[in-house]
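Treating backbone geometry as a discrete language has practical consequences that deserve illustration. The amino acid sequence and the backbone structure tokens for this protein are reproduced below.
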Amino acid sequence: MSRKLYHGAAYYPELWNEGVIEEDIQQMKEVGINVVRMGEFAWSNTEPEKDKFDIEFFTSIINRLYEHGIETVMCTPTPTPPRWFSYGHPERMYVDHEGKVMDHGSRQHACTNHPYFRERAALVTENLARAVGSLPGVIGWQIDNEFKCHVSECMCHTCKEQWHDWLKNRYETIENLNEAWGTKIWSEYYHSFEEVPQPGPAPFLHNSSLSTMYQLFSMEKIAEFSDEQAEIIRGYSKAPITHNSSIAFSVDNERLFKHLDFASFDTYAAYDNFPAYLINSDLWRNFKKGKGFWVMETSPSYAASLESHGTPHPNGYLKVEAAAAYALGAEGFCYWLWRQQRAGCEQPHGSVLSAWGKPTVGYQNVLEVEQLRKDIEPVILATTPSQAQLAITYSDRSKAFLKTEPHRNLSHRSLVTDFYERILTMGIHRDLIPEEASLDGYKVLMTPFIHYLSSEYIKRAEQFVKEGGTWIVGPLTGGRTEEHTVHTDFALGELERISGADVLFTYPMDDTGSIGRAFDVSAPLGMWSSVFEHNQDTVVGTIEEGLSAGKAFITEHALGAGKIVMLGSLPLGDAGDQLIQRLVDHYCVGANVSLRTDVTKGTIVAPRQGDGYSIWFVINMDGNGGSVTLPKEGLDMQTNTKVNPGTLKLEKFEYRVIQFNEK
């Protein structure tokens, strides 16, 4: 990829005639679209009959686009196996948890673990990569599309066999599995790996180990499929490879992107839920640290299907959505989609052009994004996102644990996003980092909602603390083993030993009338909670009312040059938000976290670093305007005029770019 900012859209030329394609190319140039993503649903076009490949259409389109200055991210078409693949072959299809076999007619209807699917997927990908891999217009590849978006764990016979092989590799002997899972409960004891079922229909709940391990098995297998596809592409193309993913899907994104070249995601969060949009940028920036990520899909106006629709963006929002993405590390900002679908199940979805070729309600906003891209490109290319001093660990594997043990239908995505929003509104520049990420450069580490912490993670976090870091752990963290069982040495296992906490008991604190007090704030406590013995030397938060009055729910323990803070319960409501923010503020001040601002709620500061200077992108996201205090004199990069220290005000959906010299 060349050094520039990409402004793109998903394009489906296979759906349109020559006249429409020519019109599309001309209108893309007018709008400023400089990249398209295509091919992900076109298996029946590239292989209309088994072993009869026809790639010429896409070769021609890629070359025509390139002649007009539009580059291509080419996709492998494996989400939509053609009818010849599925007709008369239910054994190749995805089977859900209730045993229902999927039929043809949507997408992701095949079992991606079936050997015949893998064989055919490899062949179509190889033929596609051979035909277009060396074309100058192909600047990137996307493998498949939205793995596990509509499906989760497949329950077909093929998966059952591979599940047994996975278990053998993991546990080696059936005795090891029985011991790890505690299978003497409810006569679940197995005499061979072949006896271990899939977590399908059952009178009540499955063993927690069985349910969670099957999810991890599924996550690993889809990542292996991605690896296979990438290896094939690399035999014919030097262009970097990605996948279009999300925190909502049943995948382990850290594992998925491990062997890919750059990370990308899609999101359709409404403007009044902009933290759910921003969290992706702060996370995807760190899946392939140091490389620009892509917003591969977002709507120019609204998302929709035959069954539902989102609220259209207000005018002006799309521009600041793009500004935030680019400022936080995006290299590409792309829409789904260019021209409205004229058929299928997503006909109502927002687009840049209507099916009849006229501008849509979002069209003018797309023009604003293009003007933004041209205005900020020199600034973005000359700088990099600033190193955050606070990190929140994010874990897709913990998503599996919470799916097995959701308590009262807790959503991992919602829990993490709500927690993230509290930090966001405090004006603290933050990273979301995967479990295996380096902790270098951080002063405060937060680890919420992760049932199982690996020994490797605990060791790295312990070293981080000894070297002066502050580690805030919880809530709902550390209470389960790797096998999704309960610790038998301490309530929180190794974490409890190094944290200095003394857990008396754990229980669901919701609706128990429990009130906790810390940092001069009293708030209701909830969620599955750890209650600590009251020790005057380590207690930070005390339970004032409820079943555990007089005990502790926040403790602090000095270790080396740093400290471990245990948050045993989740403070709730407005008072809970205030308590959490005071906790975070207290420890950020103590850790000398300086990369933060007093930006008002609904407005963000995205800091970037240049050579001898820094940049603040100040962006109003909620449409209510906002302000921030500039610490010193700066330069307004849009007007090339001096701005004085003090209050900088922003209007509705406005962004400002301020440069500060560091000399």
Notes: The domain at 390-590 is CATH 3.40.50.880 (Rossmann fold). The first strand starts at residue 6 and ends at 10. The mean pLDDT is 97.
